[in-house]
Amino acid sequence: MTAAQADLQTPHTELPEAPRIERPAVADGAALWRLAKDSGTLDVNSSYSYLLWCRDFAATSAVARGAGGEPVGFVTGYVRPDRPHTLLVWQVAVDAAHRGRGLAARMLDALAERVAAEHGLTSLETTITPGNTASERLFASFAARHGAAVEREVLFAGEQFPDGPHDAEVLHRIGPLTL
């Protein structure tokens, strides 16, 4: 029997449905907090802040929902008050079971397209702690997909943080965007 014949006789399991990407709701706040906590790399904010974020910044954030509707990833962001065409991405997290499938990039692209349509987005900013290569790759590939340059500068030096030693936060400014 050839491999092709075996394929015809072997039932194939379907790949899981791709997560839906949409605006978060307040009811998602607890799940976003858990995803951040379980990420192992993000600074975890209070659970209250994730609830508030889902209420006040839902228009500039995204949640990826698994087949059962549960959050399996998120991107939080806000439009900078002094730069109304700039989206600052605060956090990106993907559940461990959904990593390695391009979900973070899909969420980031979907969010940028939505914010561009609603706010005239021309640039995106994020801060990345030195050594976070996954985030470096995510935002470099985002810039490449959208024909944009990346500028880097230290936003906050480590000694500026009042809670003890901290790595510097490097601002990555991506733009102008082609969306």
What does this protein look like?
The protein has a seven-stranded mixed β-sheet. The protein has five helices and seven strands, in the order H-E-H-H-E-E-E-H-E-H-E-E. The chain is 32% helix and 28% strand. The protein is α+β, with helices and mostly antiparallel strands and 179 residues long. Helix 2 (29-39) crosses helix 3 (47-56) and helix 4 (103-119) packs across helix 5. The longest helix is centred in the middle third of the chain and has 17 residues, at 103-119. A hairpin with a 2-residue loop joins strand 3 and strand 4 (83-94). Mean pLDDT is 91; it is low at 1-15.
Contiguous low-pLDDT stretches (5 residues minimum) are 1-15
Radius of gyration equals 18 Å
Distance between the termini: 50 Å
Question: Which percent bin holds the helix content?
Answer: 25-40%
Structural class comes to alpha+beta
The main β sheet shows up as:
7 strands, mixed
**Could you spell the SSE succession in H and E letters?**
HEHHEEEHEHEE
Number of continuous helical runs? 5
Major β-sheet strand ordering? 1-2-3-4-5-7-6
Measured by DSSP, the beta-strand proportion falls in 25-35%
Number of strands: 7
- Overall shape: globular
State mean pLDDT (0 to 100 scale).
91
Q: Summed up, what is this model?
A:
The protein is built from 5 helices and 7 strands; from the N terminus they run αβααβββαβαββ.
Write out key terms for the chains shown:
179 residues; alpha+beta; seven-stranded mixed β-sheet; globular
Secondary structure blueprint with pairings:
Blueprint (H helix, E strand, L loop, with lengths): L2 H7 L10 E3 L6 H11 L7 H10 L5 E4 L5 E10 L2 E12 L8 H17 L3 E6 L4 H13 L3 E8 L12 E7 L4
Parallel strand pairs: 4-5
Antiparallel strand pairs: 1-2, 2-3, 3-4, 5-7, 6-7
